[in-house]
From TrEMBL:
Xref: Gene3D superfamilies: 1.20.1050.130, 3.30.70.60
UniProt protein name: Elongation factor 1-beta-like isoform 1
CDD domains named in the record: EF1B
Organism this protein belongs to: Coptotermes formosanus
Cellular component, GO, one term: cytosol
Family listed: Belongs to the EF-1-beta/EF-1-delta family.
InterPro entries: eEF-1beta-like_sf (IPR036219), EF-1_beta_acid_region_euk (IPR018940), EF1B_bsu/dsu (IPR049720), EF1B_bsu/dsu_GNE (IPR014038), Glutathione-S-Trfase_C_sf (IPR036282), Transl_elong_EF1B/ribsomal_bS6 (IPR014717), Transl_elong_EF1B_B/D_CS (IPR001326)
Domain Translation elongation factor EF1B beta/delta subunit guanine nucleotide exchange as annotated: residue spans: 132-218
Highest taxon above the source species: Eukaryota
Listed GO MF terms: guanyl-nucleotide exchange factor activity; translation elongation factor activity
Keywords: Elongation factor, Protein biosynthesis
Length: 218
């Protein structure tokens, strides 16, 4: 999906389909790739494309901080490939490996067998997919006297197999109080989200409560 396609209804639908299974257009945290796609949109998305709208509001919430996001400002090649695949009626399972061939002689049969064998070997070498989720958490302090840097440092001390902490920011909630909004990626079979929240709430001197803002399968 080229940048120009984002000006069309079909391009917007393709991007919405892509974001149904992705939190960001590339990787596990907001980057300049997201900014590039964000700025390429002709207008804010509507409720007709809920996944795109969720992503758009999240990137928009960074405000001026978008300039400081990591990475290269470009439309990622992976997005082009996957979004195009979302519009393709046939996937790789339905690919005609051999095409049409009117000559059904021994040489053609041998060629088909070799190609089929090569295809089967290639499929067998594909690594098993690991189910992961991208989660955005709101960690709320008790009051405006809570040391938010110290609170974030304590949250990041929580380590376990299958957990990776990502970007974070402070979001004002009123009366001089800010909440910590922090992202993480977890392997579903290894990390219980309920357990992770309990661990964060164990920092009772800093943390009042924890809410899930976004939960997306990767």
């Amino acid at each position: 999906m080229a940048v120009g396609d984002l000006k069309t209804e079909q391009g917007i639908k393709s991007l919405d389909a892509f974001l149904a299974d992705h939190s960001y257009v590339e990787g596990f945290q907001a980057s300049q790739a997201d900014v590039s796609v964000f700025e390429s949109l002709a207008k804010p998305p509507s409720a007709a494309t809920p996944h795109l709208l969720r992503w758009y509001n999240h990137i928009n919430s960074f405000g001026d901080e978008r300039k400081t996001l990591p990475g290269e400002k470009r439309i990622p090649a992976a997005l082009v490939g996957e979004a195009a695949a979302a519009n393709n009626a046939d996937d790789d399972e339905d690919v005609d490996l051999f095409g049409s061939d009117e000559e059904d002689d021994a040489e053609t049969a041998k060629l088909k067998e070799e190609r089929l064998k090569a295809y089967a070997e290639k499929k067998s070498k594909k690594p098993a997919l690991i189910a992961k989720s991208s989660i955005v958490l709101d960690v709320k302090p008790w009051d405006d006297e809570t040391d938010m840097k110290d609170m974030e440092a304590k949250v990041r001390t929580i380590t376990m197999d299958g957990l990776v902490w990502g970007a974070s920011k402070l979001v004002p909630v009123g009366f001089g109080i800010h909440k910590l909004q922090i992202m993480c990626v977890v392997e579903d079979e290894k990390v219980s989200v309920d357990y992770l929240i309990e661990e964060i709430q164990n920092f009772e001197q800093h943390v009042q409560s924890v809410d899930i803002v976004a939960f997306n399968k990767i």
